[in-house]
Design goal:
The protein is an alpha/beta fold and 404 residues long. The chain is built from 18 helices and eleven strands. The chain is elongated and about 80 Å long.
């Protein structure tokens, strides 16, 4: 049974995380994604043994092209003429300077879809800015909102906005493919990763528009709802002095009914029956005492036991899991097979785990997860399939340094 996007050709000039994540999703769903790289650019996160490269470039064929040579650029021009989608997340204008931009390609390939996933989008005073996740988080307002009260310099940490930009990019491509079916032509998509980040500040922006209130970080407390207990609580099972050895559980009582059920989970301690805790507003006003009482309970049990006991009576609760929990102990992921052993070996990392698509197609299963390919590994196969080049011609171009 074919996968949903089989037959769709994608030329992938993207690098690091956002663009490669978008094309990984599409490759998982069956698109023929050709990853453009070169020996000169295969350093850092572009190196095939780098963790980022390993994570975001499965289910892709690897083509090495020396874009500093006219011959290499000519090869890419021909590939663009055969592509359904061309994607990059360079600074604005790089593909145009290489002579493989949208305006030149659409003249010979009117059905082509180009998506430019630059940091700031095209136009505007910041369009040429170089961006990475920490700077996007900061500029978009996410850093100022994701920390503890009194601090605006902590931020999210990992590349949250890159992941979100990848998802937005994949959705935009699918929408453009649908549009092409209706209109009979492709189009150019200009996507700003910065604006993706600003999207996630929606409630804070509304608070400012309506109330002229500039939101601040609130830690685990809800800024716009009245609910308690609503925090992470320490549990039994600490195995060492390091932070990673601590054990925590998240508990979120959103209603008075859930609070009543949680009291039963705790064994109905006398302190919890005080009248100040009867309402959500009272619990929030007395949250320090509330959290002290909850902590006395949680410190006596494992986070797993607390989660199960809470969930049995409809109280939202979850173990604060680390990577070891997810890989070795999570029964839900084990049941679904979401994490599986990758078929490849990657230098010092050896055999690695990989995650699957978080959705399952009934009629067109997406269950092929091919290892990451070395730079240039598919030169012959790709150029035979896309451009009808002979193996001898490909080898000759490799020896000349064009496909390197």
């Amino acid at each position: 049974m074919s996968r949903p996007l089989e037959g769709i050709r994608i030329l992938d000039f993207s690098h690091v995380l956002a663009g490669p994540f978008a094309t990984r999703i599409l490759g998982d769903m069956g698109a023929d994604v050709v990853k453009i790289n070169s020996a000169a650019r295969a350093v850092g996160a572009n190196k095939a043994t780098h963790p980022f490269y390993i994570m975001w470039n499965r289910n892709k064929r690897a083509l090495a092209v020396n874009m500093s040579s006219e011959e290499g650029r000519e090869t890419c021009r021909k590939l663009c003429e055969k592509a359904d989608i061309v994607i990059d997340n360079f600074s604005v204008g790089v593909l145009d300077r290489w002579g493989v931009g949208y305006e030149s390609t659409r003249k010979v390939n009117p059905g082509v879809i180009y998506i430019q996933m630059s940091g700031m989008g095209e136009g505007g005073p910041w369009s040429k800015f170089v961006t990475y996740a920490p700077t996007i988080h900061a500029i978009a307002g996410l850093t100022a909102l994701t920390g503890v009260p009194g601090r605006s310099d902590i931020g999210i940490g990992f590349s949250y906005n890159d992941h979100q930009a990848g998802l937005h990019g994949a959705v935009a491509i699918l929408a453009a493919l649908e549009s092409r079916q209706n209109l009979g032509r492709g189009q150019r998509i200009d996507m700003s990763q910065f604006e993706v980040g600003v999207n996630f500040s929606g409630p804070s922006l509304l608070d400012y528009f309506v109330n002229n209130n500039s939101s601040e970080p609130t830690g685990n407390k809800l800024p716009y709802d009245i609910a308690a207990p609503h925090a992470c609580y320490p549990c039994a099972g600490v195995s060492g002095d390091a932070v990673v050895d601590e054990r925590w559980v998240a508990i979120a009582c959103m209603t008075d009914e859930q609070w009543g059920a949680f009291k039963g989970v705790m064994g109905n301690p006398a302190w919890a029956d005080e009248s100040v805790f009867d309402s959500a507003s009272g619990r929030v006003e007395n949250v320090t005492r509330l959290d002290e009482g909850v902590t006395k309970y949680t410190q006596t049990l494992s986070p797993e036991d607390i989660m199960v006991a809470c969930q049995k009576v409809g109280v939202p609760a979850g173990v604060v899991q680390n990577a070891e929990d997810l890989v070795e102990r999570d029964p839900q992921l084990k049941q679904s097979g979401f994490l599986h052993t990758d078929e490849g070996e990657y230098g010092k990392f050896g055999v690695t785990y990989s995650d699957k698509l978080p959705f399952q197609f009934e009629a067109t299963p997406c269950d092929i997860y091919e290892r990451v390919h070395r730079v240039g590994e598919d030169n012959v196969a790709v150029l035979q399939d896309w451009l009808d080049m002979s193996e001898a011609d490909v080898k000759q171009a490799e020896e000349a340094g064009t496909l390197k």
